[in-house]
Amino acid sequence: MALALTIAVERFPIAGAFTISRGSRTEAVVVTATVSDGTATGRAECVPYARYGETVEGVVAELEKCAAAVAAPGFDRAKAQAALPAGAARNALDCALWDYEAKRSGIPVRVAAGLPEPGPLVTCYTLSLGTPESMLEAAKAASARPLLKVKLGGEGDPERIAAVREGAPKSRLVVDANEAWREATLLANLEAAVKAGVELIEQPLPAGADDALEGLSSPIPICADESLHTVEDLDALAKRYAAINVKLDKTGGLTEALRLVRAARERKFKLMVGCMVGSSLAMAPAVLLAQGADVVDLDGPLLLARDRDGGLTYDGSLVYPPVPALWG
Predict the structure, then answer these.
(1) In whole angstroms, what separates CA 309 from the centre of its chain?
(2) For the whole model, what pTM was predicted?
(3) Strand 172-176, strand 200-202: pairing
(4) Which secondary structure element, helix H or strand E, spans residue 224, and what is its range?
C-alpha cells in the first residue's frame, strides 16, 4: 500500500523558561510526521535546533519534499536514510516509519531492533542557567531528585556549581556548559566540578575548538554533545572525550542512533542518551535506546507546562517505557 506523509507543527509551553548559554525560551516548537497506509499509522516528533542551522520552517520543507518519495512503492527506512541528512527532519520520518512498521506488523520496535525488554529509567532533571542565587533555590526545590543536570554559561560557573551542590547535597550531578567554557578557564571550572563531586561534564568547549581536551587527564569523564552527530564523528573524538551524548535529533532517527550506540560501545565510550525539549512523543524512541546507558537525560516533558495526551509515565525522576498507543 502507498504511504501518505502528513506534517504538523505543534507548540508546548515550557514551565517558566528554559535557559542555556545560548539563550532562553518559553515554549517548545516541534514538528510531527505521520505516515499511514490507510490502515496502520505511525508518528514521531522532532525538535528543530538553531545551533545546527535548523528552523521549524526548514524542517517542514525538508519533509514536504519527501512526500512523493514516501508515497512511492517500496519506501522504507533505508530510503529515508538516503533521502535526508542527519538531523531533525530525518529523525521525525525515521521514527514515524519505525512506529508504522510496529503498528502494521504487531511486532514492537524493541523486538524489531533487537533491544532488551525495557524497564523504567532514572532520568536527569535539568536546572536552567541562572545566577548562583537562583540556581541555589532551584537546586533546593529539586533536591529530592537523584540526578540533576546543571546548565552552565561560562563566567561564574564555579560559583554556580558550588551553589547547586549546596542546594542539593545528596543528588548526583552532571554539568552541561553547552560550549561556553574556554581553554583559559577550563582547569578552574574542572576543579570546581571535582570539588562538587560532579560525575560528567558535557561539551565544555566549542565544537571544532576542543583540541585543548586532547591529552587532558580529567578525573571526570568529559562528554561530547555538539561535537557528535553520527558514527562518522566517533574516531575523531576518541582522544578528547570519554563519553558521548546520543540524541535522535542529531543522529537523524533511531536507525542511525542504534548504529552509533553499537560503535560507541565497541570503542569503550561511556554512553549518555539525551534529548531536546519536546513532548513524550520525542522521548519515546529514546527510552528504548537508553536501556543500559550510563546516563539518561530524557526529562523534556518534565520541563513542559503540559505534555501531549497519552504521554510517558513519569514517577519523580523515573521514566517508564512508552505504551504502544504513544509509540513503538
Answers:
(1) 21
(2) 0.96
(3) parallel
(4) strand 222-224
The dihedrals phi and psi of 178, each to the nearest 5 degrees, come to 45, 45
- Stretch 49-73: mean pLDDT: 97
DSSP 3-state of 29 = strand
φ, ψ of residue 238 in degrees (nearest 5): -60, -30
Contact 199, 174 (CB under 8 A): yes
Q: Using an 8 Å Cβ cutoff, are 162 and 175 in contact?
A: no
Quick one: which of 266, 267, 225, 220 has its CA closest to 246? 225
Distance CA 161, CA 150 (A): 8
Cell of 126: 535539568
Q: Are 115 and 91 in contact (CB under 8 A)?
A: no
d(CA 120, CA 69) in angstroms, rounded, equals 37
Question: Which string of DSSP letters, residue by residue, matches 66-115?
Answer: THHHHHSTT--HHHHHHHS-SSHHHHHHHHHHHHHHHHHH---HHHHTTP
| Per-residue model confidence as pLDDT tens digits over 159-214 | 999 999 999 999 999 999 999 999 999 999 999 999 999 999 999 999 999 999 99
pLDDT tens for each residue of 249-300: 999 999 999 999 999 999 999 999 999 999 999 999 999 999 999 999 999 9
Per the CB < 8 A criterion, the answer to whether 124 and 295 are in contact is: yes
- Which residues pair with residue 4 across a beta bridge? 36
